[in-house]
Amino acid sequence: MDVRVLAVMATALLGLSISASAAINDWTAIGPSGGGVNKIVYSQDGHTAFMAAVGGYYRSQDSGVSWHLIKSDFLNAPVDVAIDPSDPTRIYVVAQNVPCLYVSTDGGATLAANAALPSTVTQAHQIAVGKDATTLYLSNDGRIFYSADRGQTWLERTALSADPTTSVLKLMIDPTDAKTLYAAIATASTGNEGIFATHDGAVTWQQLTSGTESASLTMDLAINPTNPAQIWSAQYDGIWASADRGVHWSNVFTGAMFGIAIDPNNPAILYAGTAFGKVYRSANAGVSWVDVSGNISAGQNLHLAVNPAVSTQLLAGGIAGVSGSSTSGTTWASQQAGFTATSVTGFSADSGADRIYIDVRSNGVFYTAQGAPIALPVNNAALLALSTIPTIDVTSILAQPGRLFASLNNGLTSSADGGTTWAPEVQVLPPTGTQQVFLMTNAPGAPQSILAASSRPIFKSADRGVTWSQVVAGVPVNSSAANLLFAASNPAIAYAAFYNGVAGPAAYLGVYKSTDSGSSWAPVNTNLAASPILLLAVDPTNANTVYGAGASSLLKSVDGGVTWSVLTWDSTGSSGTPNVLTVDPLHPNILYAAATQRVGRSVDGGTSWETLGGASTHFGVNALIADPKRPENLLAGTAAASVQQITIAPDLALAVSAPASPLAIGAVATYTYTATNLGPFDATGVKVAVQLPATAQSITASATGGTCAVSGMAATCTFPILRKAANSTLTVTAVAPSAGPFQVTAAVLGDQPDSDPTDNAVSSPATVTTISDMSVTVAGSATAHVGDAVSYTLVATNVGPNVAPAAQLTIQLTAGLNSATVSSADATCTGGASGQVTCNLSDLAVAKAVSVTVNATAAAAGTQTLTASVASSATDSVSANNSATATTNVSAVPPPASGHGGGGALSLYEALLLLLLVGGRLRAFPSRLAAAPNT
After folding, report:
1. How far apart are CA 79 and CA 140, in angstroms?
2. What is the 3-state secondary structure (H, E, C) of 731-768?
3. 202 near 130, Cβ under 8 Å?
4. How far, in Å, CA of 801 to CA of 769, rounded?
5. Which of 368, 676, 758, 818 is 20 to 30 A from 882 (CA-CA)?
6. How many whole angstroms separate alpha carbon 355 and alpha carbon 346?
7. Which residues of 156-168 are buried (b: 16+ CB within 10 A; e: fewer)?
């Protein structure tokens, strides 16, 4: 690996991060758009619309063309929304769980829980707002709560039913009388339903209709705004009308109806929605009806809303999304941009085509290609044409190289071109063709072997779906397969979890294993109590490693399902054990698992877990898949938030402690690197690649907690796991044998892309040259008198690491020192002007010391100095010791002492001094000095 490779590596990481930026380290909805709609209301201006849907509470500011998610963190989906008739900025949203009522005072932009609601309200469903704007009614099971002051205070009124299984499906208030209220209820325990009315503010109730849920369940009510005595009911058995406030009813249209809406500007115009996604229009108050379904795509369970400002505009919300019409229903368009609340039930990948197919049961089949964060539809119109019901119902999909299977309500179909076209007829699997297939699987390396399961039997195809046969060998009688899993590393091995639910509670029968690609089965677990009730995944590289879930624990088997061990998983914080788990196809120690309110990631085979996307997720997960081509991309198929994608991209950073430039020829250079994971998730397969120049020799590499290898001029150290907020170090050493540039570069990368590759690489440029550390010391006479001889000893030393070429010692004496002589056994010294002496030390070897002696005369009193300095053509690593100074304090000769008065005798000292001064004269006169009297 050279510098260019490291640069390309960093560029690739940057490109990958950009391509997946829509979902870097957090969840992003990538589609498909749509989802289940519970209620849509228009504001009076017709421009703003509000929606309670399975994905949360949405607002539109373009008449329902596009939507913006305002709040999604409901425990269960909001079920009703209403507007204050006198204040369009005041919006009420009803949730099924505490807190059950939210209020907006800013036009629906934000919501706040109604704190005044009694704590006994725990299962709200419907709200009705009176024309006076102060009167509110809220249903909780069969109970009714009333407020006369916009929700500041509440009173409980008379219950519609004491049965706790009672639900109020619709509350409708008389537009002219806030005390008149209609309620459509259903009681699960008895199967009864009916419409009730009160005219005294829910103090007393009158039952207007009765029936059974299966025959006449009321799904929606509407009231004529100009003639409140006229009421409409959408029921399982048709549209019913009353002209006397519900006392008498007549059927005006037959068929299973789910929605009814009145044009507020022309009450003679009605719209009715069916259970199968059709819309009918009446222009004569229900006397006759015209099918205006056209190309509507909202699906079943329709709710209809007419724009009060533009009567030709209406919205239809169903289980498949929102459709809008601006032509009174003659033409329709999908109007769900920003509305991503579909229920995704499964994934299946065709890695050859680089596609992941998405099963949206009520909407059809979609796919994402080449990692793009967008879900595109296959030819779902062709799928719908194959169905025997007026809606799509895809219960299972299976992708293979060049082939895609889809199970419909009436049989199995396939496509050889990625869903663009489908087989002209469905295939009915024997012997129970009326039972839909809800599980299909095959081993990636053996597409000819396919296993499928319906509510009872297991089927197998050995010819890629051309023919099928029921599997009976070893399959428990009257059992169903909760899971079917092939082992990718061994297509002969498959696993299944069976249960028996023919009568009474489901009885789990344990884990079964097949060693002949699913043709026969045998139980493998010896302890049912400790075995999983749900199989989740098989390790793609080891057929004996299987993951499953028990009632309260996540389990793992490493012996093909015989025994199971409990993995660490916070069931309390996750609201249960995982219901789905997938294994990274390239890094099998990386697991992803999802429970009700958590998606977890493990990088150590399930020993420890981190949470993806915050402390909890607010969408239930039905399916998980790691992109086979780019496994850092995790896709979650949710129950009410479409496909959510997250790209795992830890931020790795690299720092270096490098030797200072220049480097000495032949010296060992040590580089210490620190790789840090700045988070937010653990990184795996972290590699630090260090590239040294071609001249480097004796390269070594070592790491704490990692392994290192040296190949050529490159050293690579690998750390299996680098946790978030942790770091790891490595040391690389090399010898620079010759002079010249010496640049070392390094980069860090992991199995996952890097969210910020700008801090992934470091460079350590340096120059290699001759380096020595020369030093000099001087010692000599500390004191002297004028005229005294002084001596100095100089020692020049090279401690290396290289020879000091052409080394010189320069000596400078002050003017008060003269007549100097310089001597050395290892140097040649010559004098110069102004008291300077130069000594040639030649090439001074490492650890060599040269001694030089200087002798001089102290010629003048004062402080006299000798300064010495050393130099060579090498770079000196320590300049502070390149010079030294010796100081001699020189004093003058003492003057003669003063004479004595009188003629006293001379002292010995005086006599000697006199002799020295007049010695010549004494020699001239010896007889006289000798004849002098001794006094």
Report:
1. 12
2. EEEEECCCCEECCEEEEEECCCCCCCHHHCEEEECCEE
3. no
4. 11
5. 818
6. 14
7. ebebbbebeebbb
Question: Which tokens sit at 911?
Answer: 């006599």
Residue 920: its pLDDT value, please? Answer: 45
Structural contact between residues 343 and 395, judged by C-beta atoms closer than 8 angstroms: no
3-class secondary-structure state, position 9? helix
When the candidates are 2.60.120.200, 3.90.180.10, 1.10.10.10, 2.60.40.1510, the CATH number that belongs to 3-20+650-769 is: 2.60.40.1510
Strand, coil or helix: what is 918? helix
- What is the side-by-side strand order in the sheet with 727-735? 652-657, 668-677, 727-735, 697-703
Handedness of CA 356, 348, 594, 33 (dihedral sign): positive
- Which 3 state secondary structure label does DSSP give 802? coil
Calpha distance 51→29 (Å, rounded): 18
Domain ranges across the chain: 3-20+650-769, 33-256, 771-891, 905-935
pLDDT at 392: 85
Q: Do domains 3-20+650-769 and 771-891 have the same CATH topology?
A: yes
Structural contact between residues 675 and 683, judged by C-beta atoms closer than 8 angstroms: no
Q: Which residue has the tokens 């907006």?
A: 104
Torsion of CA 412, 417, 419, 420, to 10 degrees: -130
Helices (H), 319-427: 380-386
CA angle 265, 267, 271 (to 5 degrees): 105
pLDDT tens for each residue of 504-561 = 667 888 999 999 999 999 999 878 888 899 999 999 999 999 999 998 899 999 999 9
| Phi (first) and psi of residue 215, to 5 degrees | -105, -45
Structure tokens that stand for 471 in this block: 């599997």
Give pLDDT < 70 ranges for the chain.
1-22, 431-435, 501-505, 614-617, 896-935
In CATH, which of 3.40.630.30, 2.60.40.1080, 2.60.40.10, 1.10.3720.10 is domain 771-891? 2.60.40.10
CATH of domain 33-256: 2.130.10.10
Closest C-alpha among 408, 416, 383, 378 to residue 32: 378
Phi and psi, residue 928, nearest 5°: -75, -45
Closest CA to 750 of 538, 603, 593: 603
CA 7 → CA 3, 18, 651, 676, 744, distances in Å? 6, 17, 17, 19, 13
Residue matched to tokens 């989740």: 536
What phi and psi values does residue 860 have, to the nearest 5 degrees?
-145, 145
What pLDDT does 455 receive?
A: 77
Pairing of strands 652-657, 124-129: unpaired
As to burial, measured by CB atoms within 10 angstroms (0-12 exposed, 13-18 middle, 19+ buried), residue 614 is: exposed
Distances from the Cα of 415 to the Cαs of 344, 408, 449, 627, in angstroms? 20, 13, 17, 22
Q: What are the pLDDT digits (tens) for 350-371?
A: 999 999 999 998 889 999 999 9
CA angle 184-282-257, nearest 5°? 35
Whose structure tokens read 């030819």? 379
Q: Which residue has the tokens 């209406």?
A: 314
Contacts of 331 by beta carbon, 8 Å cutoff, 6+ apart: 294, 295, 325
Question: Hey, how many other C-beta atoms are within 10 angstroms of the C-beta on 529?
Answer: 7
Give the span between the Cα atoms of 518 and 449, in whole angstroms: 8
Burial label for 212, CB within 10 Å (0-12, 13-18, 19+), is: middle
What's the CA gap between 638 and 6, in Å, rounded? 39
- What is the amino acid identity at position 337? A
Enclosing H/E stretch for 3: helix 3-19
Helix (H) or strand (E) holding 11: helix 3-19
DSSP tag of 24 = B
Q: Which pLDDT belongs to residue 671?
A: 98
pTM of the model: 0.83
